[in-house]
């Protein structure tokens, strides 16, 4: 399934960039109205490409988007694409409804990424191939922090008194960071344990070893 890299129609781009509740430089205030009715068919088309999506459920209502990031080269700090959040509702043929939020990233008329939240479930593109578990999100951050500091796997293993295989698994997302390991990693990175706990997604209720 290839959700990204499709071409968006002019009407869909216009609807995604209609932000009547946001004031920003370069946009008419209030902006000229656009037809938001083009968005539900667009979202339904994307969702129905998911092989396990229940075709009985369809996006029935959307509201104006809220910009999360705006494509720009303003003040020498370029943003390569625009990303918006579009709230709405999905409904089933049986009359059930759930809140819906789509996060859509696009550059010009090219879709970059798409994520949908339906009720309390998030639907988004997978990182790992089909049939493989998704890596823990801490993996990418840990890898970047180690690389920025020039800390090789062997050194991190020595500093945390862990095997190199454990560090490799942390870096590729096949091992979850536990509180004691996070404490050891924070010391090796020269960061506060509290900061690394937040990055690792450990809350205050996590059991310390």
TrEMBL record:
- Quote the InterPro entries the UniProt record gives: Cro/C1-type_HTH, Lambda_DNA-bd_dom_sf
Under the heading PROSITE patterns, the entry gives: HTH_CROC1
Domain named HTH cro/C1-type: which ranges? 142-196
Q: What is this protein called?
A: Helix-turn-helix transcriptional regulator
* Species assigned in the record: Streptomyces cinnabarinus
């Amino acid at each position: 399934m290839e959700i990204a890299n499709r071409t968006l129609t002019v009407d869909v781009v216009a609807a995604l960039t209609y932000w009547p509740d946001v004031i920003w430089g370069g946009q008419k205030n209030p902006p000229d109205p656009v037809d938001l009715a083009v968005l539900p068919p667009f979202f339904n088309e994307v969702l129905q490409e998911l092989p396990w999506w229940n075709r009985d459920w369809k996006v029935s209502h959307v509201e104006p988007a809220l910009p999360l990031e705006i494509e720009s080269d303003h003040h020498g700090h370029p943003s390569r694409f625009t990303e918006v959040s579009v709230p709405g509702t999905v409904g089933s043929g049986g009359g059930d409804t759930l809140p819906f939020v789509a996060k859509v990233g696009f550059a010009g008329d090219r879709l970059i990424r798409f994520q949908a939240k339906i009720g309390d479930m998030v639907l988004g593109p997978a990182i790992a191939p089909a049939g493989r578990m998704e890596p823990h999100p801490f993996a990418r951050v840990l890898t970047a922090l180690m690389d920025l500091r020039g800390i090789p796997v062997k050194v991190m293993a020595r500093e945390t008194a862990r095997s190199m295989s454990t560090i490799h698994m942390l870096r590729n997302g096949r091992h979850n960071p536990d509180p004691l390991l996070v404490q050891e990693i924070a010391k090796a990175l020269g960061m506060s344990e509290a900061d690394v706990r937040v990055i690792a997604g450990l809350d205050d209720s996590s059991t310390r070893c």
